[in-house]
# Entry
Amino acid sequence: MTDLLNRLMELEADIHYKTAPPDEEPDFGYVFGHRPILISAPHGAAHTRSGVLKQEDDYTAALARLVAEMTGAHALFLRYRSGTDANFHPGVPYKQYLQEVIKHNRIRFVLDLHGAAAYRDFGLALGTLYGRSCPNERLLILSVMKRFGFQEDAPWLKRLDLDDTFSASGIENQETITSFVSQKLRVPAAQIELNAYLRVVRRQPDASERDPFQGDPAAIERTVEMLSELVRELVRFRRH
# Structure
């Protein structure tokens, strides 16, 4: 196994899917960066929506942290089981902290990472509120993804689902991270849903899904490289 995949597993081992945070600690973690880009993973651990515990999007927190390490971006991620769902409910601690990080560090773009099931017919799903969440950056994002083989007419794990299955609009009464950041905070943002084969190196023992699962190593590495290049390109774009 490569150093990159081993590092992803190390970072994911620090995520406590179904464990409540220790006293006085928040349920999320934050890594400071020196670039004006923030990578968010609000479903890194199990979370609660309308009283129902929903399973984690495993390895999204590890991906956020690894890409932040590689690029100097900021990373905010769910680290412990949460009594709320930051990608649904308004006014929750995760969103409040996100707002403070954006304000104090002059964040210029937020990438919000989520996990899609292995059975999905795409590798990546990009949600931009049909272009409204990042009108100036959308073409740049698509061009970077295409550079790494992700496009709308590609086969399965390289197929890009654009503002279709997951547009980041959410359902009735839902406030997604992308909507909150772009429409309320007026900072461009985009949601990226990653097929399990593109993120799960090896399912952790405490995962909600009990069946053993391993993703595609080459596809995971390509995804990390794509996300890292996307951060670098967004940094360059926001300088102009």
